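Hi R.,

Here are the chain sequences for the assembly we discussed:
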Amino acid sequence: MTSTNRLLNRVILAVLAIAALAGAVYIANRAYPVVAIPTVTELDPTTLWIVAAGALLVVVLALAVIITRGRGHSRVAVSHQADDGVASIDARVVADLITDDLALVPDVTAVTTRAFRVGGGRALELRVSVRRSSDLRVVVDAVDRAVAELDDVLEERIPILLHVVSGVRANLARRQRVR
Amino acid sequence: MTEKKIYSRLVRRSLHRSRSVAVSVALAITALAAAYVGTESVLAALTSPPLLLSPEAALAAVDKPGQWELAGAAALAVIALVLLALAIAPGRQGRHEVANERMAVVVDDTALAGAIGASTAAAARLPVTRVAGLVSRTRADIRVTPTSGAPLDADTLTASASALIDSLDLHPRLRPRVAIAANGVIGS
Amino acid sequence: MTPGRVSVTARALQRTVTAIAAGHLGVPVSNVSVRLVDDGGLLGIAVTGPLRLPPLRSPNRGSGAVSRVQVARADIRSDVASIAGSAVGSVTVTITRAIVIAEKRVR
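And here is the predicted structure of the full complex:
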């Protein structure tokens, strides 16, 4: 979950699709001429250098786009900057606090956090793993209570995404222990 | 950005794939291909021997496409279709949104199915192993294997599943369907 | 009598500051890492480590995490100035983990 431009991702995929299709159509058309597509036969050095330059441009653009994917991840949940230094608190701290608070909720098997920047501010994803046969209402209520206290402790209300996932492995471990 | 907008963005992004991985892989392959083409072009322009296939030879091969070239064209067409599918398909993540005042909440459909299954099993007074839940975008299919001699009422179980689903206030809305197996299991 | 000179190695200074920082964060020294930099002639301090915090729903929780960090920053600054005699520039504290310990009720 980042500030990646999702529309751009899909546009790029579509552009690559069209390029691949163009190549396929060109080759097929040479074998079974349907449309009059001018063939490329000239291979003088100028053309070759132009092709090489174009290829270089493609490489640079492709690498540039790849590098910018996944931006927006951060480690910091809360940060206060002053003239004499910075006080900052990592997302992991939130995970530690909430893990401790949810320790008595048997349905919860793990709590992890990820911080990222959204719309200029910071947000937090709280990933809570639950056993397969969990009571979701109890879990969500417990997280609600924990987050209410967290807002107090951090002295700030961060936008939080609670993502409830199934922690299958942990569930199996518990079953085996009971047996 | 207002808080409300941030929350709706958080949810929307959690419910659909970003395609960042697909784009990165596709562009990496494209960069490799472009690097190769560029290298061969430079070598040809310098009248040096080619690495694998000189531009001249490549154009000649494509000019009179044989089996290999047509196979290559077919492969390109398949790749084009896959990329187009990735570009257009919504890429839903198999999650549902739960209404909540303070947070944006999304639940994996597997966790949702487990919870609905467990609640149905409790309502039917059966162990959870007898209930299988499957959650899709708009439906929750619950299959219950009863104990022989202890028949179950599908409507009651459906009502209890409905109650749980309604209390969670899910989006997109989920309609529960309970199917009770014709054959039960001896002993509870 | 001419005044003498105390030569402090960078290593010794760093150990001192780390001990001071760990003390104010309430955590073991081995968990704290400190980087000393030149801050326009002053001593710049960057602290990375955990913070001792009470459980989220403890009845007498005291001040919030950010306040504790700000207090720690100020205390680190003044202690380093007085103990190590350095003129301190910016003090940055980054809390990486929470060590959740129920604080005893003050009688």
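Chain A has two domains: 6-68, 73-178. Chain A touches chain B through 74 residues (CB under 8 Å).

Let me know if anything looks off.

Best,
T.
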